[in-house]
Amino acid sequence: MIKKNPLDYKIRRVILPASFNRSSRKEISQEEILSSEKNPCMSLIFQRSKESKKVFLSPDYNQEKFSHVLHSFSEVDPFVHFALDAALELIHAHAGSLFIWDEFSKELVLKSFQNPSVSRIRDVRIKLNEGICGLVAKKGEGLLVEDIRHDSRLQAVECPGRYQTFSFLCIPLLSNHKLLGVLNITEKENQTPFTHEEWKQAELFARHIALAYDNLKLRHRLQSENASLREELTMLKETLPNQEKFVSIGKVASHLAHELSNPIDAIRRFLNLALDQVMEDSLARTYLLKAKDGIRHSLRVIRGLLALCREPIPNQTKAAELHELINQSVNAFVQHIPADAVLVEKHFCGEKILVRDCGLQLVFKNLFENAYHAVYINGNGSAKAHEGKLLVDTKRKNGHVIVSVKDNGSGIPESIRPRIFDPFFTTKKEGEGNGIGLAICRDIIERCGGQIVLGNCEEGGTEFTITLPVQEKEAGL
After folding, report:
1. Which domain holds residue 328?
2. Where would you tag: which of 71, 164, 292, 374 has the fewest CB atoms within 10 A of its CB?
3. Which helix (H) or strand (E) holds 83?
4. Final residue before a domain boundary, out of 213, 231, 266
5. Residue 390 near residue 405, CB atoms below 8 Å
6. Which conformational region is residue 125 in: left (phi greater than 0), alpha (psi within -120 to 50 degrees), or beta?
7. Is 42 left (phi over 0), alpha (psi -120 to 50) or beta?
8. Reported confidence tier of residue 317, pLDDT bands at 50, 70, 90
9. Are 73 and 81 in contact (CB under 8 A)?
10. Measured between alpha carbons, how far is 105 from 262 in angstroms, rounded to an integer?
């Protein structure tokens, strides 16, 4: 029986398109492979047999040529498969695995494995200092084990026992002292222990793998950043005409507000003087009081316009971790209110969540300040007797995160609920609010791709619900 070259199947699974049967052990012609692969570097490790036209490994293959191939991949999955296959072929082994470090979950994730005695392994994750892989990853130092039964370094480490030999190599993949993964080579084809020469060869090739993978991650990151920049540039080009209009409108509004503020303020003073000159129950006094209410409303609108022109709304978009944003906003909030004025409770879903941030801290600042006024400040400016509470809750659902900001204040009357997001509308007394906070909140949330609504709080108080799309991390990197 003629033994097939182990790389015959392994190379096929890397370069063949999805239409080929990857689990098939049949031999495949050179023409089929070269017509389906797009990487000219791959030809370095092939040679053609004129008689059979089958694929064989070139007799002069070495680490340098395998390294050329490693640096030519553009996707993570075929890269890790080829990296493991090449490492096994160099050491003349037929069992091993390659783990990639997941910086987000702080775990080693199995990406590729070969083992004649195990048909399939799924969802293997290893934490630092867990098992032999975790120990190697934690220390950043590789292991050559000639016989684990007599190796005092690993007496307390649990071994899975899936292999037919007791010798193996376990090597961390490091780049600039940064952990990228772990390479395991667990069984030689002749079942003999691994030698120091093989250890040196595997360790050197592991450096090639780490360098190539780090470069691949960098290319992916640059591609992602370039795509984001192109998307942002396109969006800026589309919004620039509108922004110019808004700038012009803002300048006009600011100018009008300044020009109107002084004469309207003078009208209010003369109205107050006129009120002192008329009888309490006269019809003229009634008219003057109505005129004073109109002037007061005009001044509120003017002050709102001035505040809106000065309000710094962030114009940069970035990905940010939602719970960190909320924690920072809560810390800033509690530092600017009286001690024990409001009890803040946070109930977060148990995972990190990335969202598009176009100024979310300003949203939370406005919502928290509104809650503080609702639960702590009476209409006369004094503190309320009952204990004020503010609850911030997050949960993930169908690719979105839902943020609830709820207080136990007096709530918002049904009659004014449809107007709360209108610019310059406020329920606070004169001098305490300008009515633009919630309008700004809605604008920022919509720029983040989400929505904000006023919910129904059955037990009293006010609840705002924010829904934001979750930004998924880059797959495999």
Report:
1. 316-477
2. 164
3. helix 76-91
4. 213
5. yes
6. beta
7. alpha
8. low
9. no
10. 59
At 174, list the tokens.
């490091």
In this structure, the answer to whether residues 198 and 343 fall within a common structural domain is no
296 phi and psi angles, rounded to 5 deg: -60, -40
Q: CA-to-CA distance for 454 and 461, rounded, in angstroms?
A: 11
Region 138-158: mean pLDDT is 79
Rounded percentage of the chain residues whose pLDDT exceeds 70: 70
Highest-scoring range by mean pLDDT, 146-155, 156-165, 324-333? 324-333
In a domain, residue 22? The reply is yes
For the CA atoms of the chain, what is the radius of gyration?
34
Question: Residue 314 phi/psi, 5° resolution?
Answer: -55, 140
The strand ranges marked E within 167-322 are 168-175, 178-188, 318-321
Q: What is the DSSP letter of 384?
A: P
Domain count for the chain, please give it: 2
pLDDT band at 224 (very low <50, low <70, confident <90, very high): confident
Q: Are 199 and 188 in contact (CB under 8 A)?
A: no
- At residue 474, does pLDDT exceed 70? no
Residues 241-299: pLDDT tens digits? Answer: 666 665 666 666 667 666 777 788 888 888 888 888 888 888 888 888 888 888 877 77
Q: Which amino acid is present at 474? A: E
Which is nearest to 116 in space by CA: 69, 171, 162? 162
Q: Comparing 37-41, 64-68, 454-458, which segment has the lowest mean pLDDT? A: 37-41
Average pLDDT, integer, range 129-155: 84
Same domain for 466 and 353, yes or no, is: yes
> 86 and 201: one domain?
yes
How far apart CA 148 and CA 476 sit, in angstroms, is 32
What's the average model confidence in pLDDT over 64-87? 87
Residue 444 near residue 364 (C-beta atoms within 8 A): no
413 contact partners, CB below 8 Å, separation of at least 6? none
Cα–Cα distance between 386 and 342 in angstroms, integer? 10
